[in-house]
Every structure is written in C-alpha cells, then in structure tokens.
Amino acid sequence: MAITVETVTELDDSIFDSIYADSKTDLEAIDYEKLFAETNPSSDRKKEIFKSRLDRDGYNTFLWKKDDTPILYTSGNIVAEYGWYDGNTKVEFTNLFNFRVAIMGFDAGNSKDWCKTNEFYLTVKNHLVNNFSANGYIIEAPVGSALFTSTKQAQANGVCEGTYSENPNGNQINRGLVWVY
To answer: What pLDDT does 51 receive?
Structure first.
C-alpha cells in the first residue's frame, strides 16, 4: 500500500466529483456563513465554493492517491512568515506550506483511516520538503470540522511528522495547526 501525491495544473472533474461526494457529509456541516460569507448556499453552490478554492490562482493543487485510488485534493501556497504572540513572546515560523483547502475521500476499502497514518504524514513531509523546500506546514482548519478533528487525533496518536504547535490566538472559526520539520 502506497500513498502518492502529484501536483496538478487542473482538477479532473470526475475525480473531484468522487472525492467531493465522499466529503459531502463533512462539508455540509461547515458554517458557510462564517467561513465564506455565504448565507444558506445550495448544495450546488457549496460544491462550487470548494472547487473554486481548490483551483485558485496562485495556489498549488495536489492530488493524493492510495494504491492508485484518488483520496484527497488539497490546495495551498508557501507563506514566508507565520506567527502569533504568546503573551509578550512572539512565536514565529518561516517558509511554511499553508494548506488552504482540502476534500478527503475514501480509499478502495471505503475508509478514510489513511489520513491517520504515519505513511500519509511522511508523504506530506517528503513532498513539501523536496518540491517546495518547506520548513513545515500549516493546516488552517475550521474548528470542530472533520479535518480539524482527524488531524488533531492523528497528532495525539503520534503519527504526524515534525514538531507541533497550535495557534492559541486562532479564532473559533479557523485554527492554525503547525508542524515544523
């Protein structure tokens, strides 16, 4: 079993539709008004929001596969500096890849447990270091979302690569989760 990643220049509609369908329950639970300033968007509009954010100019879009089954679309960019104040002390990071959006699908076994494995996080690290010379990454996840919960659980399980920090000043909508290599 292997997890692979490739940078894509455009979304494949059939792959997007499949992964989106696997993510739909999780994505329906998001507060679209707080996150996207969209009041009661239709199901089609919600899908359009995620597709446009994955395919955004200036972002790098990745397609992740497990044993040739598409499991994840992510998009983001390198940020030169990221940080916050912890009291009077500034916590600062440089050259991090900021994952701005993600939709997570099922593998061939109809599971999303791949996102809780060291193999996945090692693939993330290798891709970001080798292709972007990144010092680590940020996931800005909606608090309470499936992405937030599964990522925090993977961290608690000790499978994530790098040294973990969480922005304590993050708002209650999105929270910056940071790993540095």
So the answer is: 95
Backbone φ, ψ for residue 154 (5° rounding): -60, -40
Predicted structure pTM score: 0.90
Mean pLDDT of the chain: 91
Q: Which residues contact 164 (CB under 8 A, 6 or more apart)?
A: 155, 177, 178, 179
C-alpha distance from residue 67 to each of 11, 18, 102, 108, 168 (Å): 19, 16, 19, 8, 37
| pLDDT at residue 141, as a whole number | 81
Residue 167 predicted with pLDDT over 90: no
Q: Are strands 60-66 and 3-8 parallel, antiparallel or unpaired?
A: antiparallel
- What mean pLDDT do residues 52-70 have? 94
What distance in Å separates the CA atoms of residue 92 and residue 113, rounded to the nearest whole number? 32
Question: In the beta sheet, which residues pair with residue 177?
Answer: 139, 166
Model pLDDT for residues 11-35, shown as the tens digit of each residue = 999 999 999 999 998 888 888 888 8
Question: CA–CA separation, 69 vs 35, rounded Å?
Answer: 30
Contact assessment for residue 132 and residue 12, using Cβ atoms and an 8 Å cutoff: no
